[in-house]
Structure formats: C-alpha cells, structure tokens
C-alpha cells in the first residue's frame, strides 16, 4: 500500500470471512442429526407397538384358545375346516292350494242417486242429516207447494164446469133420440147433438188431465229417497230457489249390498267362464291398497260381455253384503278371485324356493348336518305357500332361512323349523364337558384368591414357589 494513503495498516482490523464450503458442511451435519433422531423415534415406536401386541396376546390367551376349540368343532360339522351354517328348515306337507287370480278393482255402489227437484220453487224444509242412513221413501226435502195447490184448485173448478156441460148435452141427446123415433125432429139435429156430447167429453178429459198433472206437481214438492242408502253432504241450503231438473240437493248412495268392479287379463277369461258356465259360486276377496288386510268377502256376480282392446282385460263384478260398511264407494282394492283348488299337493314355504343356474331349486336336508341342491318344478302359489309338482315328496325337509352362503354338500346347523332339534351329546361326553367346565371354573376361582387369603391358609404364593425351585436347582 502506498505510504501516503490515509488508511494505516497498523490500525486496520481484519474481518474474517467464512468460506462457502464450511457453511454447507454445517447445514449437512444438522440435517443428518435430525434424520438420526427421527430414525430413533421410529424404532422406539416399533418396539413399543410389538411389546403392546405381545402383552395383549398374553392377557387374551385363554379366550383365544376357547375360540380355537370352537372353530375346531365347526370344522368337524361343516367339513373342510369351515364352520357350519345356521339354517332354518321346514317339512314338505300335503295341503290344498287355492288357484287365485288377482286384479285391481274399485268399489262401485249398485245405486248412486243425485236428488234433484222435478219442479221449481223455494226450498222450505230439509228432512235429513248429512251422513244419515235412509230407507226408500224417507222424507228428504220440501218445496213450497202453494202455487201448485192454487193452480190445482183452478183446474178442478174448470173440470166441474165442463162436466156439467157434458151432462146437459147428454140429456139433450136422449130427448132428440126419442123425438126422432116419433118423426118429430130431423135426423140432422140428432147427429149434431151427438157431436156436441163428444166435444164436451173431450173437454172434460183435458180438464181431468190438468187436474192430475197439478196433483203430481203437488206431490213432487215433497222429495223422498228413491233407494236405501247413505245421504251425502248437503249441496243446497234452506231458502234457496230450486230450478227443476238442474239443482242438486243431495246424493244418496247404496252401501249394502255393494259391488266391486275389477279387471283380469284376457288369458284368464277361459278359466273363469268355465267355472261360471258350470254354475259355480266363485269367491272374491277384497284387500286394501297395501294388499295386507282383507276387507270383505263376496261372490262373483257377472262378467262383462267383451274384452277391452286397449288394455287386454275384461271387467268383472263381485257382490259384497258389506254389513260392516268396510267397503267404501270408489275405494281402491285388490280383488282376489278363487277359481279352483289344488288338492293334496306337496306344499313348501315360498321362502325355500330359489332360482338360479340349476333353474328352480331348493336346498334339501341330507341327514341332519348337510344339504343338497334339488331341482324342482312348482305349481300354484298363494303367496306364502307353493305347490311342488316334481322333485319333492311329503316328509322331505328343505331350508327356508340362511340359504345365502350354502352350496351343494355344505354343512349346516339347524336352528329353527318344525324338524327335530339336533341330537344332544351322550352321557359320557356330557359328563366330560361338565367336568372340564367345573375344573376350569375351579382353576379360575383359585386363581382369584387374594394374597391375604393364601397367607391365612398357610399357602405359599405361586411366585415364591417358583423362585424356591429355581434356587434348589444345581448350577450348570
């Protein structure tokens, strides 16, 4: 440095500068330490996990052994080491299966009458309550009759006058007829008088018709029920002016007997008509919308005379007495028509019938511990029971519950059904099992004794006995 420089070398301070390679080495050493700590933590966690599993297995050693023994028994019953499947069974019995045809139906009254007045006038009286049961001829309503009564009196007076004229003309005709016999009057006068009599007779007949019409109008002012049934809600109130044949007063619906209109496919028409032509009384049962509860029982009344081409169905009408009024007009029902009955057929529960690769089949009990696949052919069914036409005989036992995991030759364990329960163990085996159970219970009870009880009885604790045996053993 130049001597004339203002910076003096003896007073200048040297600043140490770290080299880049030293800084990189320090960072790498820090990362290595963290990795080593992480590996140590992972190792400690693995050791602790193994120790926890070992202690858990040791504590649960006895239940595990019992589970192993139970699995061994399941392997003996099921074969191949698999546990026996718990199933419910039922026996094939001989029974009668009704042939039932089902269709959708509607409750239809035999008579539904809308009450309207046949004359015009003011409604002066109502003689029913809404929802009341009425008989044929019961009083329902009254129209003001005074205008019609007055007109009736007028026509009756006119009739009396014309009847007097007719009587007078008849007397004159009789006189003329006597005079003509004496040649005192001409024949023309007699004929004229006879025509006048006939004219008066026509007038009297017309007057009588007017009188009868007014009497009928007066009768129409009193409205009565035309059928037996139930009165609906009132459609017009008291004091309103009623127009003839246009104003509805109330609706009366016949409830008993009542009918059900239902439909069946055209393929079933021949079976129904065969029974109808034979004179059979076919039973029809009506069920509710959910097809769970029976509402009523009736008989088939008639079959429609043609098939509906748009739906391919035919209408049928069944009559129900409906004394309890369970069937309500326009109610939707499921109608079931019994057309025939299959007698003494092998019957199985419908739950036992399966469908798959073999077709329609069941699991048949082969002894008491195995099942076999048996293909069958089914016939008529009533929902819960099915008739079998081929493949089973009366007395066979079939599986009804627990068929999901079964296969041909699988081992089973019967848990329910009408079949006899599995055979109980023999006397020796039962005694052995009871003795082993009592021994296990005694060991457990003795193991549960406290240290104080052992000390009071003068017993040596198991740990001290084991330690004494180890001390007495000679050194190797």
UniProtKB/TrEMBL annotation:
Tagged with keyword Mitochondrion: no
InterPro entries on file: MdtA-like_b-barrel, MdtA-like_BSH, MdtA-like_C, MdtA-like_HH, RND_pump_MFP
UniProt domain Multidrug resistance protein MdtA-like barrel-sandwich hybrid: residue ranges: 112-254
Start and end residues of each stretch annotated as Disordered: 1-24, 61-83, 401-476
GO molecular function: efflux transmembrane transporter activity
An annotated GO cellular component: efflux pump complex
Compartments, record wording: Cell membrane
Domain called Multidrug resistance protein MdtA-like C-terminal permuted SH3: residue spans: 344-405
Domain Multidrug resistance protein MdtA-like beta-barrel: 257-341
Listed PANTHER family: MULTIDRUG RESISTANCE PROTEIN MDTA
Listed name of the protein: MdtA/MuxA family multidrug efflux RND transporter periplasmic adaptor subunit
């Amino acid at each position: 440095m130049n001597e004339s420089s203002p910076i003096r070398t003896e007073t200048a301070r040297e600043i140490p500068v770290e080299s880049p390679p030293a800084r990189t080495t320090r960072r790498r050493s820090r990362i290595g330490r963290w990795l080593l700590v992480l590996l140590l933590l992972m190792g400690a966690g693995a050791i602790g996990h193994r120790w926890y599993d070992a202690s858990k297995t040791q504590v649960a050693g006895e239940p595990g052994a019992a589970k192993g023994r139970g699995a061994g028994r399941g392997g003996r019953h099921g074969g191949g080491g698999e546990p026996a499947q718990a199933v419910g069974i039922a026996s094939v019995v001989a029974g009668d299966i009704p042939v039932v045809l089902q269709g959708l139906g509607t409750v239809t009254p035999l008579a539904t009458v809308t009450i309207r007045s046949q004359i015009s006038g003011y409604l002066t009286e109502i003689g029913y309550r809404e929802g009341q049961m009425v008989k044929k001829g019961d009083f329902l309503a009254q129209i003001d009759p005074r205008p019609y009564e007055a007109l009736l009196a007028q026509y009756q007076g006119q009739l009396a006058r014309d009847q007097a004229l007719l009587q007078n003309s008849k007397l004159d005709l009789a006189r003329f007829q006597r005079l003509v016999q004496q040649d005192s009057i001409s024949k023309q006068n007699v004929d004229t008088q006879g025509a006048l009599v006939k004219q008066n007779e026509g007038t009297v007949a017309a007057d009588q018709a007017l009188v009868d019409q007014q009497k009928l109008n007066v009768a129409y002012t009193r409205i009565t029920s035309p059928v037996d049934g139930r009165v609906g809600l009132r459609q017009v109130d008291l004091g309103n002016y009623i127009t003839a044949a246009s104003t509805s007063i109330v609706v009366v619906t016949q409830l008993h007997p009542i009918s059900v209109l239902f439909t069946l496919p055209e393929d079933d028409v021949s079976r129904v008509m065969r029974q109808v032509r034979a004179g059979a009384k076919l039973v029809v049962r009506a069920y509710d919308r959910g097809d769970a509860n029976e509402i009523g029982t009736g008989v088939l009344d008639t079959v429609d005379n043609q098939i509906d081409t748009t739906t391919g169905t035919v209408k049928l009408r069944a009559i129900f007495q409906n004394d309890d009024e369970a069937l309500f007009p326009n109610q939707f029902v499921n109608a079931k028509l019994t057309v025939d009955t299959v007698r003494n057929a092998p019957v199985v529960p419908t739950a036992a019938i399966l469908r798959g690769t073999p077709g329609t089949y069941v699991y048949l009990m082969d002894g008491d511990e195995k099942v076999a696949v048996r293909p069958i052919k089914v016939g008529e069914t009533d929902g819960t029971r099915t008739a079998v036409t081929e493949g089973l005989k009366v007395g066979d036992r079939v599986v009804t519950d627990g068929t999901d995991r079964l296969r041909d030759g699988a081992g089973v364990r019967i848990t329910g059904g009408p079949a006899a329960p599995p055979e109980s163990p023999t006397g020796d085996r039962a005694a052995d099992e009871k003795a082993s159970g009592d021994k296990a219970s005694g060991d457990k009870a003795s193991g549960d004794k406290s240290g104080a009880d052992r000390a009071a009885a003068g017993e040596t604790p198991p740990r001290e006995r084991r330690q004494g045996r180890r001390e007495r053993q000679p050194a190797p």
